[in-house]
Amino acid sequence: MRWDDQRGDDDAALPGLGMRGLVRSVRTPEFAGITFHEVLARSALNKVPEASAMPFRWTVNPFRGCTHACVYCFARPTHEYLDLDAGRDFETQVVVKTNVVEVLRAELSRASWGRQAVALGTNTDPYQRAEGRYAFMPGIVEALVASRTPLSILTKGTLLRRDLALLASAAEHVPVGIGVSLAIGDEALQQAMEPGTPTPRARLDLIRAVRDAGLPCGVMIAPVMPWLTDGRDELDALLSQVAEAGATGVTVLPLHLRGPVKPLYYAWLEEHRPDLVARYRSLYGSGAYAPREYVRWLDERVRPLVARHGLGRGGGHRLDAEGTYPEGSMPPAQAPPVATVLQPALF
Ligand code: SF4
């Protein structure tokens, strides 16, 4: 999902409406209330800092901002690097790198390119609705495969279905990791917290489609939100559905609330669940992370459920820097048709 230490290639050069490389700002009737700022990017590959704990070293993000509009989104603060705000601007002012495929192709053709795995969906969602308009992903996948570069994709977008045949074919040449993010099983809560995303049912169907295409499909159950989605019954039901859909593993992470996400999240609570505000303030205090005791409690709650449903860690939703599948994951050719029993882990 979203990583704090990624600022992206042009962050410092895109100050609000004076964005460097801005070609035009577009509104269309199919995307009411959304403005696309089409820019010519100078680079497509973003290098993840060496100090980062993330397993991948390179990312590609065709978009900045995300109309999926998840209230808890970890990527919201990155919009502030563009002199846009982390709230409504993040959801409605989407920066589009219109030349991302051409620039990527050029970067991958350099003799110095080391063919380390490239992760998509680590900052904003590459299959958000705008991808239906711009259709960058087929070109990105083809460019990565042509340069023999492993790739992984994490998304909430059912538009991924459009490219499954291409991705299955790509997996014959390079390691391909696929992950679907599904944090909330209850549709009413999902609509309230992630108003621009496909329903949980649609995402379960997407997991099935990924597996039917012969690809691995890890599921990110993240973030788990205290008193909203951390009940044993809710987690049990979600893990059961995810396993039944054929997921090859899960990653479960508790909510964190960094920078401007915290006041945005608390404003959402004030509106939808005022009864929880004081409890959250007490749990998170002045920090961004749930206390160690909560993480341990959640771990103890999740582990047996993950094991009971025959799920394991990760499940192929991402690759490490060398393009190999981390422990608990396996390449598509070896992935069994049903969920794999592996060492469950919360991380
Ligand atoms: S889909 Fe991902 S990037 Fe988009 S708003 Fe939700 S959490 Fe953020």
TrEMBL record:
The keyword DNA-binding does not apply. It comes from the Bacteria. SMART domains: Elp3 (SM00729). The keyword Ribosomal protein does not apply. PROSITE patterns: RADICAL_SAM. Residues 52-301 form the Radical SAM core domain. CDD domains: Radical_SAM (cd01335). This is Radical SAM protein. It comes from Cellulomonas rhizosphaerae.
